[in-house]
Amino acid sequence: MRKLPLLLGGLLCMAGPVWASEGGMFVLDATDSPKAILAVIIFIVAYIAVMAEEVLHLRKSKPVIFAAGLIWVLVASVAQDMGRSDDEIHNAVSHNLLEYGALFLFLLVAMTFINAMEERHVFESLRSYLVHKGMSYRKLFWVTGWLAFFISPVADNLTTALLMGAVIMAVGGRDTRFVSLAMVNVVVGANAGGAFSPFGDITTLMVWASKKVQFEEFFALFIPSVLNFVTPALIMNFFLPNGVPSGHGGLVPIKRGGLRICALFLLTIATAVCFERFFHLPPFLGMMTGMSVLMFFAYFLRKTGTVEDDIQFDIFRRVARAEWDTLLFFFGVIFCVGGLATLGYLQMMSHGMYDNWGPTIANIVAGTISAVVDNIPVMFAIISMEPDMDVSQWLLITLTAGVGGSLLSIGSAAGVALMGQSKGSYTFLSHLKWSWAILIGYGVSIAAHLAINGT
């Protein structure tokens, strides 16, 4: 994951308590208040703890949830000092809760489907198939990269990276140079693939859910996303070792119902789109409807199954295996950023970035920040700022926030996960060695978007 201190640098300068209404929630212009400054410090400290997750072995959700509680106590205290009513604070909290609740349910359904497919050995079957194909190092490099690019739009980049990482380690684990290059390629491919799909990343989902970009408009980012992946891949291609690695292990069949669960997931996504497009209902209702169908299908498997796996297939076990740390981290981020927004900091940032620099430069800078700062709070902060941008600019920040994390191995969940999976073959420094090539791809993708989609 990533962190956010740079987004807060230059915040502490406005004076005078003035209340404003923006986006359905009140904003207190109290950034010079000592309590407000303390809220910023608490947030920075919490994010330092998030950054140090791999060192502290402290799950990232814990510090941000704790910080969210403290920040809102300070927000309420500032409001009381100014004589504001309790109802206004309650409305502000409810506004953030509504934002979180809709995205929580959407993500919970997506994670449940992914876990159900994992339990049915859909991904393990693909991994074993690739291992046995007898591909050369170069072919395996491109196959895993392209699969990461096309799987991540429907599965999260973490699941995609772990799947491709397992293939790379199973086939080429003895060649450190190949593993390092292939995993850099997978990280870039997974992040780039998630950028052009509303379901490819939490940030793209946030942009779609906030109605900044329509569902079909995201696919205008397809060519820029391809260029973001292909450009560094072509450069790294010249440094791959020659030869054919030897695979091992048996082929793994997909369990009964696995392919039908894949089809149900695609239908669920289509249902969510239809709910939003034709009935103007929030997409999470379509996702929850799709999960109910998955529950019925799980019931069908148990009732008609003749083997132990089918009989014990329980959808609630799949729900329990959702990435709760990520879901709770998301809660902490939304309420931390929401509290700072209520104090007036996002208004200040919006003026400093989007009014002074212009949206294009601001969006490009925000994307590079996401190499160090988690893209979830970056995107939520920008959405909360409500900058005056057209669809092309919202697509630009969607692209840059999605692929900017590829610049460093710690810039995305995919990179962090693969560092742990590679047993020392893929590290922060081995990724940093190719950051210049990834930066070229970053620039090419931005240029392509500006040329194709305009501003």
TrEMBL record:
Membrane topology category: Multi-pass membrane protein
Single GO MF descriptor: antiporter activity
Transmembrane segments: 36-52, 64-80, 100-117, 218-240, 284-301, 327-348, 360-382, 394-414, 434-452
Organism of origin: Hahella chejuensis (strain KCTC 2396)
Lineage: Bacteria, Pseudomonadati, Pseudomonadota, Gammaproteobacteria, Oceanospirillales
Signal peptide: 1-20
UniProt-recorded name of the protein: Na+/H+ antiporter NhaD and related arsenite Permease
Alphabetical list of NCBIfam families matching this protein: NhaD_1
UniProt keyword rRNA-binding, yes or no: no
Keywords associated with the record: Antiport, Ion transport, Membrane, Signal, Sodium, Sodium transport, Transmembrane, Transmembrane helix, Transport
InterPro entries, per the entry: Cit_transptr-like_dom, NhaD-like
Highest taxon above the source species: Bacteria
GO cellular component: membrane
Family membership noted in the UniProt record: Belongs to the NhaD Na(+)/H(+) (TC 2.A.62) antiporter family.
UniProt key word Lipoprotein: no
Localization in the cell: Membrane
The Citrate transporter-like domain, residue ranges: 64-402
PANTHER family according to UniProt: SODIUM/PROTON ANTIPORTER 1-RELATED, SODIUM_PROTON ANTIPORTER 1-RELATED
Predominant location category: membrane
GO biological process: sodium ion transport
